């Protein structure tokens, strides 16, 4: 799906159109863009919300889960009345309330590697909010193969990482593999995935519009308990199976 | 001397803390600190400090000293042999967590 170029409502985006360097061309670039949001949890919700509010033209939302009460401390597109509903359905309603012009496609299922690659190939840019390194690394391989910029995220407690690969430098596979430890039901304060989602949305906006922007892959870390941040380049790992000499499976 | 430690991701799951202050001997290096914390929290602590993708043979430590990457040779030419100072903050973190 290619995001349609739409007539811009300048009233809705008046405040951002005043940003130096961000004019109607940048707004049009957002209106013509299509983002794939993989996972509509704590990171996917704020990322999608800010992209919709910024005027993104189209999004594909993917999540096989139903809204649970335990999601509500951080998955900010949902309320108590949404418990039991498919996340993508509730999210699409909320996003449409914010931006009535946005074109949304929803998939209420868990994607396997083949389906993930098919969706990545159709998207303009990818926000990977999946749990589990097996899934994230599958998304990473598909993004490298199809030349798509991607933001991957990890959050726990008050902190998190966003790994952004716009096509230059290393990638997620240069930093982690499936041997890295994981645990289900990580403890997390809602502000941490909120921050990761905002960072991911900002990276998408800057990448699509060329305002600011990061041309080389970066690992962005934040700690909201002690207000510490860092942002460092990702060195390419020569034997990375996605972007290095390793073989793609 | 007193230093501050911060733990992120899977390392915080192991230590069951996100931060603590400890007292260490004046002569401690970062390697001495990792050995000290490994004695306290078990060998998994050291494993997580040095975890890298299995196909990577680059030496790497998942630690920052005063918010700077300990692997950055410009900031820390001594790497793990860098001497710690009173008031330092050492952060240990592994890329991990949900989304």
What report would you give on this structure?
With 249 residues, chain A is of the alpha/beta class. Chain A is 31% helix and 18% strand. Chain A is built from 7 helices and 8 strands, in the order ααβαβαβαβαββαββ. Chain A has an 8-stranded mixed sheet with strand order 3-2-1-4-5-6-7-8, with helices on both faces. In chain A, helix 3 (44-54) runs parallel beside helix 4 and helix 3 packs parallel to helix 7. The two termini of chain A are 26 Å apart. In chain B, strand 3 and strand 4 (68-69) form a beta hairpin. Chain B has a 5-stranded mixed sheet. Helices cover 26% and strands 22% of the residues of chain B. Classes of the chains: A alpha/beta (249), B alpha+beta (99).
List the keywords.
heterodimer, A: about 250 residues, alpha/beta, eight-stranded mixed β-sheet, 8 strands, about 30% helix, about 20% strand, globular, B: about 100 residues, alpha+beta, five-stranded mixed β-sheet, 3 helices, about 25% helix
Shape of chain A: globular
Tell me about the largest β-sheet of chain B.
5 strands, mixed
* Percent of sequence in beta strands of chain B: 15-25%
The rounded Rg of chain A comes to: 17 Å
Biggest sheet strand order of chain B reads 2-1-5-3-4
Q: Which structural class fits the helix and strand makeup of chain B?
A: alpha+beta
Biggest interface, residues from each chain: A-B, 47 and 27 residues
Fraction of residues of chain A in helices? 25-40%
Report the total helices of chain B. Answer: 3
Number of strands of chain A: 8
| Total helical segments of chain A | 7
Helix content of chain B: 25-40%
Give the topology string of chain A: H per helix, E per strand.
HHEHEHEHEHEEHEE
Largest sheet entry of chain A: 8 strands, mixed
- How many angstroms separate the termini of chain B? 38 Å
| Total strands of chain B | 5
């Amino acid at each position: 799906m290619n995001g349609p170029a739409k007539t811009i409502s300048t009233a809705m985006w008046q405040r951002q159109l005043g940003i130096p360097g961000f004019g109607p061309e940048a707004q049009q670039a957002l209106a013509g863009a299509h983002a794939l949001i993989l996972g509509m949890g704590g990171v996917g919700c704020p990322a999608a919300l800010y992209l919709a509010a910024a005027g993104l033209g189209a999004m594909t939302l993917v999540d096989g889960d139903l809204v649970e009460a335990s999601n509500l401390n951080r998955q900010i597109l949902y309320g108590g009345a949404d418990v039991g509903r498919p996340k993508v359905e509730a999210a699409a309603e909320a996003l449409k309330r914010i931006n009535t012009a946005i074109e949304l496609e929803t998939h209420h299922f868990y994607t396997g590697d083949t389906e993930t690659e098919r969706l990545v190939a159709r998207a303009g840019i990818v926000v990977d909010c999946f749990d589990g390194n097996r899934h994230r690394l599958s998304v990473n391989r598909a993004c490298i193969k199809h030349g798509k910029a991607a933001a991957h995220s990890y959050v726990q407690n008050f902190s998190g990482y966003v790994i952004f690969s716009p096509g230059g430098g290393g990638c997620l596979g240069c930093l982690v593999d499936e041997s890295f430890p994981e645990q289900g039901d990580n403890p997390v304060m809602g502000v941490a995935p909120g921050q990761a989602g905002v960072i991911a949305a900002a990276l998408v906006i800057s990448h699509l519009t060329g305002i600011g922007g990061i041309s080389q892959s970066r690992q962005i870390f934040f700690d909201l308990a002690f207000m510490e941040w860092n942002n460092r380049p990702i060195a390419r790992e020569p034997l990375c199976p996605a972007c290095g000499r390793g073989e793609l499976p | 001397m007193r230093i501050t430690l911060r733990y992120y991701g899977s390392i915080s799951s192991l230590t069951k803390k996100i931060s603590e202050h400890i007292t260490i001997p004046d002569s401690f290096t970062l390697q001495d600190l990792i050995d000290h914390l490994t004695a306290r929290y078990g060998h998994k602590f050291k494993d997580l400090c040095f975890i890298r993708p299995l196909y990577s043979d680059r030496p790497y430590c998942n630690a920052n000293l005063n918010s700077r990457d300990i692997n950055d040779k410009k900031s820390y030419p001594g790497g793990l042999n860098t001497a710690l100072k009173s008031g330092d903050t050492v952060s240990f973190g592994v890329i991990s967590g949900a989304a």
